[in-house]
Design brief:
Glutaredoxin, 11% strand, 49% helix, five-stranded mixed sheet, single chain, alpha+beta, 678 residues
Length: 678
């Protein structure tokens, strides 16, 4: 795995870990005791293990209890126990499920899988889904649990309350008992105990696995599992030959294992500290004609950049109401749009809100959109407009013509310029506060700003001119300060948007666009990455807009937790080798159009549809991993250039643009590159 690929996995796991870690760390003493008791519980499925011989094999293992309370698939005397810590709404968890199924088939009778719940807090349907699965177990044992498990993952986009009840009925469960279990949260304590145990063992992200106690994080490819399983089978065989009963192997291997994750070495961590956003900096964030509520002469103005499809944005809404209730007329809220490019309904929802604003009903529409965040497709938007009594002819025309696109683009440009590309982002009298923070975080800043504002009014500043005066000399770009123990800025500078990376040129790569184009864009992408597919229409728009001025060069960057990404890259490369760029781009389009179907059989089918491909050669290339070294060279090129990226990432004449950015972000970068090339 390359350093860049590893970083993506680590960052994802870290992000999930921080969020859930912050929540579980504030549990009461009773909850902490529950976690401790769970960690100390005996392995009920293994029998009496007190006399089992402990393993002394030098392998770092964790003691993850297996009891009758957990759903289990596989024999009690399996030599390898895999504890899966998972979340029914997590896309990475669903992607690894075929791998787990394959493992159970390949190691039939030798492996058992044990389920532990870890519904992440930003997945709003994950906890109800976990409760439903555990109720299925309560009614029908592990068999019913796994049947429900399969339904939930097979229908991951449809796991709301009504869906859960429908699946229960399909599986022959007592639906009334399920409803009661969901209404009273019968299984919540057990699920929270799983979460606390996972956090204690350092498994805060999902999916996480413990293979005979050995940790493996993320949706890893099957080879990563097999390398550990094969090693564990050898160790288990030795224990059995030494006299340990097969049903006591797991207990023997984990008897003296770790019961909590090791604390990080503070000294080792200190050099990794980075510069942090300056919480005291004041930014120049204009109000303009943006929708607002609260008096124009309020002492504190809070500007929010938000996205109607973003779950964090909806979760902060109760906090905003609490602020309004607490501070009354001292605070006004201003809403600015920042629909993220990977939320397909966010853009139309923003248009709908601004269309409602034309008729003085922005906030009622705002409330409807957040209250129905899972239902904001075009037909829903029209239904909400009717409920609000809007002029439907004008409303539909506004959506059809993207009437408010310029306003939305302007809001997004301001957000990006201030370093507030994520949502939600707040500016409190110009001071930045990122994310769905608790009320206390807002209160700390608001109280400081109230005191300053009152002093300014007392000194003679009219209340109506307060905000303009406060932000008059505000920053227009992100401001940072050194974190404690951070290296000096000279030793560890913030990445510059103007930094030019020298990407090593490949011997040959698929190209589209004019050969003599002034702007060369290296596109590092992954055929299984959903963000990579979402940016493809934008890439086409760039090609159409800058015909003759821009060329795209494809570079492979398959992420390690996308199990079909490497085979897909290899298949595309064999098509390229046989048929050049034209054939490659046809294969590329077929794979992105069918991103959920990238099995070996699918890849061969798409190659056949491209036409003119020698299928025997393609199969041989996949069987022998003929192009793996070439693909790895693309991955290594990023590391050699000193860049750290996710997918998709674009190097525009060497300058990095990361993520599935909107067209305007590409346009700004390309226009600048063209100007610099003159």
């Amino acid at each position: 795995m390359s350093k860049g690929s590893a970083l993506v996995s680590i960052l994802f796991a870290f992000f999930c870990g921080v969020v859930i870690g912050n929540i579980t760390s504030h549990g009461n003493k009773g909850e902490e005791t529950t976690a401790d008791n769970a960690a100390a519980a005996p392995d009920a499925k293994a029998g009496a293990n007190a006399n089992a011989k402990p393993a002394d094999d030098g392998i770092e293992r964790y003691k993850v209890p297996v009891t009758a309370a957990q759903p289990i698939k596989g024999p009690d005397d399996a030599l390898v126990t895999i504890v899966a810590v998972s979340d029914f709404q997590c896309p990475f968890c669903s992607r690894v499920e075929p791998t787990v199924t394959q493992i159970l088939q390949d190691y039939k009778g030798k492996v058992r899988v044990v389920w532990r719940n870890n519904p992440l807090p930003f997945h709003q349907n994950a906890l109800p889904a976990a409760e439903t699965a555990m109720e299925a177990m309560a009614q029908g044992g592990s068999a019913k649990f796994w049947a429900m498990h399969d339904k939930l993952f097979a229908n991951q986009q449809a796991i709301e309350r009504t869906n859960l009840e429908a699946y229960a009925q399909e599986l022959g469960l007592d639906v009334n008992k399920l409803k009661t279990a969901l209404d009273t949260h019968t299984h919540k304590a057990q699920i929270e105990a799983d979460q606390q145990l996972a956090a204690k063992l350092g498994a805060r992200g999902t999916p996480a696995f413990f293979i005979n106690g050995r940790p493996l994080s993320g949706a890893q490819p099957i080879d990563a599992f097999k390398s550990i399983i094969d090693d564990e089978l050898k160790r288990a065989d030795k224990l059995v030959k030494s006299g340990v009963a097969k049903n006591q192997v797991y207990a023997a291997l984990t008897k003296d294992a770790l019961t909590a994750a090791k604390a990080p070495d503070a000294a080792a961590q200190a050099p990794q500290a980075r510069r942090q956003p300056d919480a005291k900096a004041v930014y120049k964030v204009p109000v303009g004609d943006s929708p607002s509520k609260g008096p124009n002469d309020a002492l504190v103005t809070i500007i929010e950049f938000s996205d109607f499809q973003c779950p964090f944005c909806s979760r902060v809404e109760p906090t905003i109401k609490q602020i309004t209730d607490t501070y009354g007329k001292d605070v006004r809220f201003v809403f600015r749009e920042n629909p993220l490019p990977f939320h397909q309904n966010a853009g139309p929802a923003a248009e709908a809100a601004l269309a409602a604003n034309d008729e003085g009903k922005f906030w009622p529409m705002h409330d409807k959109l957040y209250a129905n965040q899972q239902a904001i497709a075009r037909e829903n938007l029209e239904a909400y407009a009717k409920e609000l009594g809007l002029n439907m002819t004008k409303f539909k025309a506004a959506l059809d013509t993207n009437k408010h696109k310029a306003v939305i683009d302007g809001d997004q440009q301001v957000a990006r310029s201030l370093g507030a590309a994520g949502t939600p982002s707040f500016f409190i009298n110009g001071r930045s506060l990122r994310g769905a923070q608790p009320f206390e975080a807002f209160k700390a800043v608001i109280d400081e700003e109230l005191a300053k504002a009152k002093a300014m009014v007392a000194a003679g500043t009219p209340k109506g001119q307060l905000y303009a005066k406060i932000i008059e000399n505000g920053a227009t770009e992100p401001k940072f300060i050194d974190a404690p123990n951070a290296p000096s800025p000279a030793a560890q500078p913030e990445p510059s948007a103007d930094k030019v990376y020298q990407i090593p040129v490949a011997a040959k790569s698929p190209v589209k666009g004019a050969a003599n184009a002034k702007v060369t864009i290296y596109q590092f992408s992954d055929f299984q990455c959903p963000f990579c597919s979402r940016v493809e229409p934008t890439v086409k728009q760039v090609m159409d807009t800058y015909a003759g001025k821009v060329k795209f060069i494809w570079r492979n960057y398959p992420l390690p937790f996308h199990q079909n990404a490497m085979p897909a890259a290899e298949a595309a490369w064999e098509v390229f080798e046989q048929g050049g760029s034209d054939k490659f781009w046809k294969m590329h389009e077929l794979m992105f159009s069918n991103q959920q179907a990238l099995s070996r059989e699918d890849l061969e089918k798409y190659a056949g549809q491209v036409g003119g491909i020698n299928m025997a050669k393609l199969k041989a290339a996949l069987d022998t991993n003929k192009h793996k070294a070439t693909i790895q060279a693309d991955i290594d090129a990023v590391t050699k250039a000193g860049a750290q990226i996710g997918t998709p990432s674009f190097f525009i004449n060497g300058k990095l643009l990361q993520g599935a950015q909107p067209f305007e972000a590409f346009k700004a970068a390309i226009d600048k590159a063209i100007a610099e090339a003159k």
